[in-house]
Write a structure and sequence with these properties.
Bound molecules: adenosine-5'-diphosphate, aspartic acid, magnesium ion
CATH class of the largest domain: Alpha Beta
Structural class: alpha/beta
Number of domains: 4
Helix content: 40-55%
CATH topology of the largest domain: Carbamate kinase
Number of strands: 29
Length: about 800
């Protein structure tokens, strides 16, 4: 006979997924039998995955008078009968089948009384829920029985003694320890199977330990038996750096301290039920989290002093469904006892306080509680302070709902400055508004209260900032797949691999739109097949697209406008106000009313994001960037002189009277240098927009109407549509010929020049001589001469190709990288 001694005892707890069906239970038993080769093993089992929820739902339906509760009971019975059939040879199934049927009959009897009474008390609910673990643990025992493995099954209700707080009963450890020791230590078996989650009060009435409470049962058995270890077997390979359902790149944490594990689970890491840790920590029992489906994985070891790692933050977790209670008023300042009364009022109502912050002025205290407790808390607090409220020394309690906490956890954070800074900047750049913050003085935990709808984004942003230094995701929304858009997609596709390998940047195009349709895929579109996807896309409503961008709420979102459309420019404000960066080669916004331009710039500043439009002037040439650099470093722009139209420069460099002017313009359009509407170029309007944008960027308040535009086109050319425009160009050939001949005769060249001088801007055709800076300007090149305080005599010159889809796309790409702050 084997007499177990405490040091040869292990407690293994298996969660709902681990025992979800017969096949999984077989895996569980492999693990158990392996452990039992060395030690006595206590196996604590959860209900089959989903059964506790089904039991609750059945009770609630019955109480609501819905006979459909019976369907749920049938489903519950079915799942267990199936598991019996998977686990036990046909010849010996009958005992196990009838055991399941007996339990299910009992269950049916309870539910029908609930149905008859139309009432479900907490006490009855506990009784109902207990069937999940009773059934699952008996299934495990039945399999051991069928395979002739020595074992004992015990009803935890005879072993774990609690008070009568149904739903989340508190354990009487002295009695429990004795009951467990007497029972388990006395038995000869090497394997003991017990249901998790359930217990009983002194009267023997069934209680439960709270949802997820089987973990806690494991700890209770481990402590009572002074086990050498407690293993929590679940469906993931350990406690992870973040909830793997929210963060794709979450990684298991190999080593963690009890304190850290406690903080993570307290702040929502569901993998471990929070009360589990305290008892094993006190008893010095190592706690391990392992994956039933990958038993060879290391898992997580929770211990006193885990080895140091590079990561200062050990993990990130979150809890949703919170309400912030704000108590405010001048009456609190300097008066002792307010917080005491506040917390006593909350305690009387058994309101669980999750986070507390107090402003240093003592003007306000904020307390985060579960939403279900909020109204009770309000009544209790307003009653407690009724006198102060009536005398206006305090405001009535103010509630903010729909909130969540995201917490960074790690004991070595206290030795590392700058963690909060990184947290604030990562969240700030992504438009996540922080409603409250708390940092324990022990600095194991920095908690932020944010909107529940921001949780997924916030956790991913923080996970990137603290665990994926080498990996950043940029989410791009592109509107426009014309000349430039196509080239941009080609460049992105070509660079995707490079960005990932060299810059650790995952650039994902999440949405793509032309003027009619759009396609959106939260996981990123395949840039090899975007044309097909877009062809099957949905009808485009820009407002809907913007709403979807907001609803997706993805981190590092950048909206790219490669259209020339005013409707698209009208969306920028809504995007910037939600911290979505905007990159535009579309000039409409920056050349619109000054007020609109200024508002977009200030929205970008206010919401900590970028509004970038380098390609508005000179395609990819660093014109706006250079201008900004000059100003930021204290220089002052006196004068600018520029050729800013690739189209016009191309036209005047190619027109020599031998081919008609109209034909040369047509060639410029065919080669992709013109605006979609070439009249914008030829009329000088496009150049006027550019010098306007430069003047504005130089700090001048200016409108389009302030620019002096001396047209060189006969008015008739602009009277009709684009085909009429070309006809009129042809009809006025002699006019263009004359301009050319006059210039050539004087040894000059025609340049369409934009100039800015001391607050005044003008555009117009000039014939410039060989000694002029603008004379030598080939092809479709642009040039900008900046005369500033520092560049007073010789200008700072930016020169190069100023038009063309390829270079414009490259400029947009560069802005995109800047917006992503790479
Ligand atoms: P069990 O039924 O085994 O008790 P639970 O569903 O209660 O399993 O807990 C495991 C689940 O917890 C995982 O599948 C995972 O989705 C979720 N989870 C949330 N946060 C974390 C985290 N930080 N680390 C690991 N798992 C987590
Ligand atoms: N079955 C219970 C629940 O779902 C206890 C547990 O699985 O830990 O809450
Ligand atoms: Mg669990």
């Amino acid at each position: 006979m084997r007499v177990p001694t405490p040091s040869f005892m292990q407690v293994l707890k298996f969660g709902g997924t681990s025992v979800a069906n017969g096949a999984n239970i077989l895996r569980v038993l492999d693990i158990v039998l392996e452990a039992a080769r060395q030690d006595t093993v206590v196996v604590v089992v959860s209900a089959l995955g989903g059964i506790t929820d089904a039991l609750m739902a059945a009770g609630q339906r019955a109480a609501a008078g819905q006979a459909a509760y019976q369907e749920l009971l049938l489903h519950i019975e079915q799942r267990h009968l199936e598991a019996v059939k998977e686990l036990i040879p046909v010849a010996s199934q009958s005992a196990a089948l009838s055991q399941v049927k007996r339990r299910c009959n009992e269950l049916e009897a309870i539910c029908s009384s609930v149905f008859a009474l139309g009432e479900l008390s907490a006490r009855t609910l506990d009784r109902l829920m207990s069937f999940g673990e009773l059934l699952s643990s008996q299934l495990v025992a039945a399999r051991l029985q069928a395979t002739g493995t020595a074992h004992a099954w015990h009803d935890s209700r005879a072993l774990i003694r609690t008070n009568s707080r149904f739903g989340a009963a508190e354990v009487d450890f002295a009695t429990t320890n004795q009951l467990i020791r007497d029972c388990v230590a006395a038995g000869p078996q090497a394997i003991h199977v017990v249901p998790g989650f359930i217990a009983a009060d002194a009267a023997g009435t069934t209680t439960t330990l709270g949802r997820g409470g089987s973990d806690y049962s494991g700890a209770i058995f481990a402590v009572a038996l002074q086990a050498s270890r407690l293993e929590i077997w679940t469906d993931v390979s350990g406690m992870m750096t973040a909830d793997p359902r929210l963060v794709r790149h979450a990684q298991p944490i190999a080593h963690i301290s009890y304190q850290e594990a406690m903080e993570l689970s307290h702040f929502g890491a569901k993998v471990l039920y929070p009360p589990t840790i305290q008892p094993v920590m006190h008893a010095g029992i190592p706690l391990r989290i392992k994956n039933t489906f990958a038993p060879a994985d290391y898992g997580t070891l929770v211990e006193v002093a885990p080895p140091r790692t590079r990561d200062t933050v050990r993990g990130i977790s979150s809890i949703g469904g919170l309400t912030l209670l704000n108590l405010e008023g001048s009456g609190m300042v300097g008066v002792p006892g307010f917080s005491k009364r506040l917390f006593e009022a909350l305690a009387r109502e058994r309101v669980n306080v999750i986070l507390i912050t107090q402003s240093s002025s003592e003007h306000s205290i904020s307390v985060a509680v579960g939403a279900a407790d909020a109204e009770r808390a309000r009544t209790a607090v307003d009653e407690e302070f009724a006198h102060e409220i009536s005398t206006r020394r305090l405001e009535p309690l103010r509630l903010e709902t729909g909130l969540a906490i995201v917490a960074l956890v790690g004991e070595s954070m206290k030795n590392h400055p700058g963690i909060s800074g990184r947290l604030f900047s990562a969240l700030g750049h992504n438009g996540v508004n922080i409603r409250a913050i708390a940092q324990g003085s022990s600095e194991k935990n920095i908690s932020t209260v944010i909107q529940a709808s921001d949780v997924k984004k916030a956790i991913n942003v923080l996970h990137e900032a603290f665990f994926e230094v080498e990996y950043k995701q940029i989410n791009v929304f592109i509107v426009g797949v014309g000349n430039v858009g196509r080239k941009l997609l080609g460049q992105l596709q070509q660079q995707q691999r490079y960005l990932l390998d060299k810059l650790q940047l995952q650039l994902r195009v999440v949405a793509l739109a032309n003027s009619r349709q759009y396609v959106l895929d939260p996981n990123g579109l395949d840039l090899n097949t975007w044309e097909d996807r877009l062809a099957q896309g949905q009808e485009l409503q820009l407002n809907d697209l913007v709403e979807q961008i907001h609803a997706l709420n993805l981190r590092n979102s950048v909206f790219v406008d490669v259209t020339a459309a005013a409707e698209v420019a009208d969306c920028y404000a809504a995007l910037l106000a939600k911290s979505v960066a905007v990159v535009a080669c579309n000039k409409v916004a920056c050349a619109s009313a000054y007020q609109n331009y200024a508002r977009l710039k200030s929205l970008a500043r206010e919401f900590n994001t970028s509004f970038l439009f380098e390609t508005n002037v000179g395609a990819a040439l660093p014109v706006i960037g250079t201008l900004n650099d000059l100003l930021r470093s204290g220089d002052v722009v006196q004068r600018m002189e520029a050729v800013l139209s690739g189209t016009l420069n191309f036209v005047f460099n190619h027109y020599d009277g031998r081919r008609p002017f109209a034909e040369v313009v047509r060639q410029a359009q065919d080669e992709g240098y013109t605006e979609p509407d070439p009249r914008l170029d030829l009329s000088g309007t496009d150049v006027a927009r550019k010098i306007l944008i430069l003047a504005r960027e130089a700090g001048v308040t200016m409108e389009m109407a302030d620019i002096d535009n001396t047209a060189f086109l006969p008015a008739a050319c602009l009277a009709g549509d684009v085909p009429a425009f070309y006809e009129q160009l042809a009809a006025h050939e002699s006019h263009f010929r004359q301009l050319y001949d006059a210039a050539t005769a004087a040894g000059r060249k025609l340049r369409f020049v934009a100039s800015y001088n001391d607050g005044q801007a003008a555009v117009g055709l000039q014939a410039v001589g060989p000694d002029h800076d603008l004379y030598q300007l080939k092809g479709k090149d642009n040039v900008v001469l900046f005369y500033t305080n520092r560049y007073a005599e010789q200008p700072l010159v930016v020169k190069g190709a100023g038009a063309g889809a390829d270079v414009t796309a490259a400029g947009v790409f560069a802005d995109l990288m800047r917006a992503a702050r790479v």
